[in-house]
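During the practical work, I selected for study one protein's amino acid sequence and its backbone structure tokens, as given directly below:
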Amino acid sequence: MNIFRIKKQLRRRWRRWRRAIWTAGGSGLVALMAWLGLLLSNQMEQLMTKDAIALETLGIIEEAAIGAGKEADSEAAWIKQLERSEQPRVVRLNKIYACGEESSILGTMSPDEVIRLSRDNPEWRGMIGAEGDVQFEQRIHELSEVCKNNGYIGIDQQGNLSLFDGPPEKEKVLKTFFQLDVETMESSLPPDVLLHLHQGIRIQDVDEYNSVLSTFGEYAVLPARKVMQQKED
């Protein structure tokens, strides 16, 4: 009799334990699913953010590719125009330095010779001029011989920071950079610096050239962005 009672009690306890186990397991499963849902949500958000960044980057790349494509199409256009005629053309090379420019005539060439020259010098940009001559442009991040030998940066009579062939007193302006805020300069710079500027600052390499433009660019009347554009030109 006692044995039957014990078995009966064990069955009741087992039922209660089983219910407790199922209840606890169900609660744990719900908690696990909620946690997984939160994790998945965070991952989806990160993926969406990454996708947005990726799309933006892709857009920039596509714009750059379109720009490069337009430039290539433009270059191909003048070559095609050249190929339609067997007429020899005068070929000019314009070297554009960080400071100064030089122009020279390379000679009279046939269309095939011009195309071969263009392919041998891919860094040159070509075009057909208004008079039918071929003009190549080469950009060089150095000083021209004129600037190396006799280049000065100073202030002209209108208050512009300018490049001179010789000291500013000779008034041989090669290039004007930007208008200076002379009053601000006079109130903030030492007198010897202003005197040096009026007498002309000798430049002999591209580092000195860029340094002078950067220093006095802070006193430009034009916005700094335009100043930098002038400097790059």
In short: The chain has seven helices and eight strands.
